[in-house]
Amino acid sequence: MPVYDAESMRSTAGKVDGIADRIAEDKAKLRGVEGESPFGEVEDTDDPERVDDALGSFTSGMQAEFDAAHQHMTEASGALRNAIAAMSEADAQAASNLTMRGEA
């Protein structure tokens, strides 16, 4: 039967929260092109906004990926905390049952 270490799981949940925080911080730094385009005067004469739109679309897509990663990390740390709570409750119930049987 596996042995679970609640303190290690709690520590891991905290580290996963830290990863989620770093993901949110990094996403905030991903702002796309501000000011002059790093690609210079690259543009389509028929559609001058094409490069800006492509860069904006890329930035939006990357921000969505960061959002998804943040959500996964948040859910993972929550799952660890839920498992800790369930284990603690099961341990308390098992201890209570042993005590009751021992007293009888």
Assembly state of the chains shown: single chain
H/E element sequence: HH
Q: Into which percent range does the helicity of residues fall?
A: over 70%
Number of domains: 1
Report how far apart the termini are.
28 Å
The total count of strands amounts to 0
How much of the residues is beta strand, in percent? under 5%
Molecular shape: rod-shaped
Q: What structural class should be given to the helix and strand makeup?
A: mainly alpha
Q: Which parts are unreliable, with pLDDT below 50 for 5 consecutive residues or more?
A: none
| Largest sheet entry | none
Mean pLDDT over the residues: 85
What Rg, in angstroms, do the CA atoms define? 25 Å
Note the total helix count.
2
Using brief descriptors, characterize the structure shown.
104 residues; mainly alpha; 2 helices
Structure description:
- The radius of gyration is 25 Å and the shape is rod-shaped.
- It starts with 5 loop residues before the first helix and ends with a helix.
- With 104 residues, the protein is mostly helical.
- The longest helix is centred in the C-terminal third of the chain and has 54 residues, at 50-103.
- The chain has one domain (6-30, 50-103).
- The protein has two helices and no strands.
